[in-house]
Write a structure and sequence with these properties.
Layout (H helix, E strand, L loop, with lengths): L1 E8 L9 H9 L2 H9 L2 E8 L5 H13 L3 E7 L6 E4 L1 E3 L26 E3 L4 H10 L4 E4 L6 H15 L6 E7 L3 H11 L9 H15 L15
Parallel strand pairs: 1-2, 1-3, 3-8, 4-7
Antiparallel strand pairs: 4-8, 5-6
The structure holds pyroglutamic acid.
Length: about 230
């Protein structure tokens, strides 16, 4: 059995919901738990605060309790069209808006004197292809931004890399907005229509990613590079 921890985030930036909180809720249903059991996965999930420092601390607590083989951290990324597997975590906090505790660091390292970046060790191209085969839009992203999602991704990558007794691997997965978030935003700001994905497709994609990763497949050598 593979032990997998999945984290979601609370709502932030004045928004009413965060799709990743709803995904985490769905992962706790009996139906998903049964699928996980059949797929050889012991799954645990939790919600994290959108706060510099505390997000990493809460995630480490969950890691120490479950001792997972794989950690998937989920976050919302407005403007993304597909579920995107992040390749890189960078050692930089540069918050465009304050986090939920009012912190707004500018050009600070996540970890003082830590390496500039970490690459995920998980086979994310294989995961991307598995989702596409299932009919769920997926791609690889080469920037998780410089807000709390990247902060958590870097903080947990650093923690796992520096733990002597841990072989656990992690990745950050960004999901698009929900259709209802796009509609709400359009009403308030009149903004152009942003891309969205229904919750059912997000849950299907995340469940498939978890079960695929839990069989520890090797990475596929396919191009997925971008020019931005
Ligand atoms: N997305 C933000 C933080 C929380 C979330 O869901 C980000 O991309 O940094």
């Amino acid at each position: 059995m593979a032990r997998v921890l999945v984290t979601g985030f609370e709502a932030f930036g004045g928004q009413a919901i965060n799709p990743t909180a709803l995904i985490v809720e769905q992962l706790q249903t009996l139906e998903v738990q049964q699928k996980m059991e059949q797929g050889g996965v012991v799954l645990q999930s939790c919600l994290l605060p959108v706060v510099q420092g505390d997000s990493v601390k809460s995630c480490i607590q969950a890691i120490e309790a479950l001792k997972p083989d794989i950690v998937f951290m989920l976050g919302q990324a407005s403007g993304r069209e597909n579920i995107s597997f992040e390749k890189v975590a960078i050692n930089l906090d540069d918050f465009r808006i304050p986090d939920n505790a009012g912190n707004q660091p500018v050009d600070q390292p996540v970890v003082d004197k830590g390496p500039a970046a970490y690459f995920t060790q998980l086979p994310i191209k294989t995961l991307m292809l598995a989702l596409k085969q299932q009919g769920v839009g997926a791609d690889i992203s080469y920037s998780a931004g410089t807000f709390v999602c990247n902060h958590l991704f870097y903080g947990i990558s650093h923690y796992l890399m520096t733990q002597v007794h841990s072989n656990a691997q992690c990745d950050f997965i960004h999901v698009p907005l929900l259709p209802e978030q796009v509609a709400a935003e359009q009403q308030i700001t009149g903004n152009r229509s942003l891309p969205s994905m229904p919750l059912e497709a997000m849950v299907e994609g995340i469940v498939h990613a978890i079960i695929t990763a839990a069989s520890f497949p090797s990475e596929q050598q396919v191009p997925a590079g971008t020019i931005n």
